[in-house]
Design a protein that fits this description.
The complex is a heterodimer. Chain A is an all-alpha fold. Chain A has 2 helices and no strands. Classes of the chains: A mainly alpha, B mainly alpha. Chains A and B meet through helix 1 and helix 2 of A and helix 1, helix 2, helix 5, helix 6 and helix 8 of B.
Chain lengths: 74, 167
């Protein structure tokens, strides 16, 4: 974060002003960081993990042996 | 822990940062969560291309900002174009009590051009160096520095701050 050289058309800000902007930005960002994570995002990761495990085990896609009467899901 | 579980928990740990970056970029919680979701899905699909030992956060932020700039920015712009009026109001009545609160700051931040806001957030809030930010954005370090600098100038202008006495 070293900004020794400033472009001439944009002179560097007074340090207290720069610090003030930095504080505000960090405060705003910190507020968002501390919000709870929406469930849909954690559920998404659970789902991705589950799918991947299934893939890796190479479980054949839902095949039923001949003779199964397919009476509903269970 | 399996590799899958490890990657999952590393992603979980980055969700707050991803959300914060997404919200700051897009200015909207709704768009932001869609953006996080899409980023997570892309990251999951591409996780073989993540180099262990490098910054997962930087890698995720790169995916996110590329997604944002290719898909989301347009939607955001359409909303943004209607509220130049709010910006004008902000400039004319900033310091009734000499204290600028966080919502004024947020409003001003949203008025910044996307590339300037992005650079300012990466360097000023997400804790990246200018070099890392340049890598994430795919531009030169000098470009990041000048965007950050212009972003600060513009924020001051939007909030009518001329000296430290104004806040």
């Amino acid at each position: 974060m070293s900004e020794k050289k400033e472009t001439p058309e944009h002179p560097s800000l007074e340090p207290p002003i720069q610090a003030h902007l930095g504080d505000q930005l960090k405060k705003l960002y910190g507020t968002i960081l501390s919000e709870p994570i929406p469930e849909r995002l954690t559920l998404l990761l659970d789902q991705l993990e589950k799918l991947e495990r299934k893939d890796r085990q190479e479980v054949p896609p839902e095949t039923f042996p001949d003779g199964a009467d397919g009476g509903g899901d269970r | 822990m399996t590799a899958i579980a490890a990657f999952k928990s590393a992603l979980l740990a980055e969700l707050p940062s991803l959300r914060a970056f997404a919200i700051s970029l897009s200015g909207s919680h709704d768009h932001a969560d869609d953006l996080v979701q899409e980023t997570v899905m892309k990251a999951w699909g591409a996780h073989a291309s993540f180099v262990p030992g490098t910054s997962l956060r930087a890698w995720l932020f790169t995916i996110m900002r590329n997604t944002y700039f290719s898909q989301y920015r347009k939607a955001r712009r359409e909303v943004q174009d209607t509220d130049g009026e709010a910006a004008a109001r902000l400039v004319s009545a900033p310091a009734q009590d000499g204290h600028l609160n966080l919502s004024d700051f947020r409003t001003a931040l949203e008025k910044l051009p996307d590339d300037q806001r992005e650079a300012l957030i990466l360097v000023g809030a997400s804790g990246f160096s200018c070099e890392e930010a340049a890598e994430i954005c795919g531009c030169a370090v000098g470009t990041i520095k000048s965007r950050v600098n212009r972003a600060r100038q513009k924020l001051l202008q939007l909030m009518s701050i001329n000296s430290a006495a104004d806040f």
